[in-house]
Amino acid sequence: EVQLVESGGGLVQPGRSLKLSCVASGFTFSNYGMNWIRQAPGKGLEWVAYISSGSSYIYYAETVKGRFTISRDNAKNTLYLQMTSLRSEDTALYYCARAHYRGWFAYWGQGTLVTVSS
Amino acid sequence: DIQMTQSPASLSASLEEIVTITCQASQDIGNYLSWYQQKPGKSPQLLIHSATSLADGVPSRFSGSRSGTQYSLKINRLQVEDTGIYYCLQHYSAPFTFGSGTKLEIK
């Protein structure tokens, strides 16, 4: 069974940093691209970042480019999102999702909540 | 960037009714369009991929179609458990973009 478990969320002050993790199991992690998607309270879904299976291709939403860094450790079956210079508008539930090779998001984690507030 | 215009924003329909949700892409995205259902307090779940293909385990009352750059999700014989918010997603090119969502309620 495919499982994605996010962690690392919490309350953080504006301007500070936070690193999210997503541990994968039930499939060969190194074979799949991965995404981060976020959802602000009461709002819709916003794609944040994508990383290919071997980390060769990385893409970001304009809203996080230059502040967030997606990475992965295939030996640890873990996806990361390093978030710096956090703003109040980054407050959201952050999901990781496994990408099918044709791009759709086949599996999602349960999310980890990030709250940026002083 | 590719924009996805989703409509309607909300929808209220009766049991057994047929409902249709649409997404208009701002440019050609081929069949790189998927649909997701999000129930209250839950993670989104894949319903349709490749514009028209039903994901594993999804009831056959859900279907997807495409006409040019307009994509539709149709739900036949609406059931209580279909309540939720529905999103389209274009994964043709980054930045990937979701539609704004359609909140579906059962009358």
Brief sketch in words of this structure:
Chain A is mostly beta strands. Chain A is 0% helix and 52% strand.
Proportion of strand residues of chain B: over 45%
Rough shape of chain B?
Answer: globular
**How many helices of chain B in DSSP terms?**
0
Gap from first CA to last CA of chain A: 40 Å
Look at the structure and give the mean pLDDT of chain B.
97
Please report the total strand number of chain A as a whole number.
11
Quaternary state of this entry equals heterodimer
Distance between the termini of chain B: 37 Å
List the helices and strands and how they pair.
The complex is a heterodimer of chains A (118) and B (107).
Chain A: E1 3-7, E2 10-12, E3 18-25, E4 34-39, E5 45-51, E6 58-60, E7 68-73, E8 78-83, E9 92-99, E10 105-108, E11 112-116
Parallel strand pairs in A: 2-11
Antiparallel strand pairs in A: 1-3, 3-8, 4-5, 4-9, 5-6, 7-8, 9-10, 9-11
Chain B: E1 4-7, E2 10-13, E3 19-25, E4 33-38, E5 45-49, E6 53-54, E7 62-67, E8 70-75, E9 84-90, E10 97-98, E11 102-106
General description of the model:
The complex is a heterodimer of chains A (118) and B (107). Helix content of chain A is 0%, strand content 52%. With 118 residues, chain A is mainly beta. The termini of chain A are far apart. Chain B is globular. The model of chain B has no long low-confidence stretch (mean pLDDT 97). The interface between A and B is medium-sized, with 23 and 25 residues.
Question: Key terms for this structure?
Answer:
heterodimer; A: mainly beta; 4-stranded antiparallel sheet; B: 107 residues
